[in-house]
Amino acid sequence: MSTSKIALVTGGSRGLGRNMALSLARKGIDVILTYHRQQADADAVVAEIVALGQQAVALQLDAANVASFPAFYGQVAAALKSTYGTGQFDFLVNNAGTGLHAAFADTTEAQFDEVLNIHLKGPFFLTQQALPLLADGGRIINISSGLARFALPGSSAYAAMKGAMEVLTRYQAKELGARGIAVNTVAPGAIETDFGGGAVRDNAPLNAFVASQTALGRTGQPDDIGGVVAFLCTEEGRWVNAQRLEASGGMFI
Ligand code: NDP
Asked: For the purposes of burial, counting CB atoms within 10 Å of the CB of 244, is it exposed (0-12), middle (13-18) or buried (19 or more)?
């Protein structure tokens, strides 16, 4: 049986979620990470966490499919028992997500529903259904985006969902505070990952534009984000609640 605290990180197979999972493990926290399709990537992250001396399990999850959540939490409960010898986990990180680049005038209902399901409806009910398994005194971290503060063309539907998550964060903090659960938003700026087809990383003019609009003069890397999430899961982070923490190097200030 592990004595470490346990974090559930959605979308932990790649990009920011992978970095969060590894950063949590470096702080002595065990991890349940989810993947959507890239099981091999998820298994590689599990191996890296085990090499760091923590326990880890990878589970498949479609974060946009609310009907699948009861079965998913059945798997989480089974993993908690068999791997960690416990019935609860401590931290939920709602990170999984895909990008959408479409002008407001051209956004279709199907595109809108896609970002709605993965960036708002999914995390809403994934968190609701986590409540029986989430320990009192735990933490919830919702991953938003700099785009919920500043506006760039082509992100209206995506950013509106992230903005809604920021409002939801405050309501969750208000209602879950009685159980000692703190809820915060982490809002990354533009980070070089596979997100949005890897545009921030691979599109040189976009990369240069982001750097030029960032006070610290470069685009973000996954390593700029994971530690911020991990900090919020430490004892030192216990009094931070209902906040939006932007990690963007100072974009558009
Ligand atoms: P990546 O594309 O690098 O990784 C996406 C992750 O989400 C993968 O683990 C993927 O799993 C998983 N995923 C994708 N679709 C689903 C789904 N339907 N159900 C469950 N999991 C899914 O993205 P990032 O790491 O860059 O983004 C992570 C979060 O950060 C997102 O919420 C994004 O909106 C936010 N963000 C990203 C920014 C950036 O510039 N990169 C900036 C601001 C916010 P699999 O590997 O199996 O495909």
From this structure: middle
Answer whether 38 contacts ligand 1 (Cβ < 6 A): yes
Distance CA 108, CA 102 (A): 9
Catalytic residue status for 35: no
Domain containing 53: what range?
6-243
Number of domains in the chain: 1
In a domain, 234, yes or no: yes
- pTM, full prediction: 0.99
Residue nearest to atom 18 of ligand 1 (CA): 62
Residue with CA at minimum distance from ligand 1 atom 3:
15
Q: What is the CATH number of the domain that holds 95?
A: 3.40.50.720
pLDDT in tens, 143-192: 999 999 999 999 999 999 999 999 999 999 999 999 999 999 999 999 99
